[in-house]
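Archive entry. Fields below.
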Amino acid sequence: MAFVELRDVGKWYAALSGRRSIAVQHFSLTLDRGDFLCLLGPSGCGKTTILSMLAGFEAPSEGQILLDGQAVRAPSRDRGVVFQGDDSLYPWLTAVQNIEFGLRVGGVPAKERRATALDYLDLVGLNGQAEKFPAELSGGMKQRIQIARALANKPKMLLMDEPFGALDAQTRSIMQRELRRIWDATGTTIVFITHDIDEAILLSTRVGVMTAGPGGTLKSVIPIEMTGDRERADPAYGRYYQQVHSDIRDEVAKASSYGRKAA
Amino acid sequence: MSVQATRAAPFEADRASPSKPGAGFQAIAAVLPYLLGFLMLFVAWHIASVYIVQSVLFPAPAAVFAKAGELAASGVLFEQIGASLQRIAIGFVLGSAIGIPIGLLMGTVPFARKMIEPWTEFLRFIPSVAMITIAVIWFGIGENSKIFLIIYATVFIVTLNTASGVATVSKNKLRAAQALGASRFQIFYLVALPATVPFILTGMRLAMANAFTTIVAAEMIAASDGLGVMLWNGRLYMLVDEIFVSLLSLGILGFTFDRLFRWGILRFAGRFSPVA
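PREDICTED_STRUCTURE:
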């Protein structure tokens, strides 16, 4: 049995016009434990909606999402979430207090949760920054805190919504390497949303390409089989890039022509 | 409540650290514009009084300060200030204590918000000054009518600011807490409440200004002591100097309390700041 299963999932919202606006339709995908899936697609294709349903923030309008055979109905500590912006951190708590938030609401005793939180602070490479407040940390550091906060709860899977989208290129590349290392160390199943082909190939074990929105669906899933540290100089990288790029090119074109029609 | 508002934000403390070279100079540089501003105010007042108006009805600052010194020495000034401040303090604390929970409820439960909104939206347009006559009829000319008026002047501003604070907590903060396993109650008191603190404090700061306006008007109409009484008696007996002492006291008190509030917000609640 698959670890995560999305069965013919669709999501629509009631639009002002009275018609429904379709965000995602007929989306089916399975994930194995330890998978690192990057979901790639043009803006407005519904990739964030998929993540939001996996997290349980929104319920599918049709179809089913199963985690370990159980239907996903509401958010839970099973599924850690890393958001794009840093506005999900709690600015009145220190870095380590942010990380231990999940353990605190879970009733873990103070000493124990502090020790765990410090371990995860170490894991994300922020040793020594425990007592800093989010406002004192850089964008990359804040995303590390978010990752540590999600991981400290030992979730079954990690859901990441363009977590490095707002970072500068340099920091972004460092964070990508760090995330690979953390994934290697923890073996957590990850679903990672991005619109960056390069990022998807450097990070994931599989790249899922979505069709253009509105009402996007999964177009193809490309397994990335590169060993060791992923380098752009690797000839395999170039082949994967071509493959993913040709899959997504038409969709981006469709997305922009739809935008013109709508305007 | 788990909010530890008593610990200073370290970054605020850093900024004002006296150990840094030139910190003393920086402190002077920070208050210098204020000092200059006040100095110019008094100079302009002096020029207007002595050279332009040249009337006993517009005393110069020196005469007002002399009168203030006299009233302070006899203890009268502090009695009047004390009477007004006590009313403001009691009414302001009670008004905030009523307004904060109602605001939290309105911001959290949409049904409650819709139900309470007619009250707040109706009553907040009736100025507290307009309520003076009815307050005196209901509560007499003693302390109770004044405290009622200050509560009235405080409660709506604090309620509405608190409610809008709760309603604007970013969705991701709440979702993050949900995904970390927090219960609805935990989300409320560990996330929504601390995130709302800056809005509550801002509402209280605005309410404080309102309370000052209201207390003077109320005391002018019905009271036996307070700065408003000083103003009113000054008119009755043509004690222009005393009127000016009273006005000066109001300005200084208002300014001081507002600064103290701002300082308190930065010192104790800087880390609750919605930025970041």
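CURATOR_NOTE: Chain B has two domains: 9-57, 59-272.
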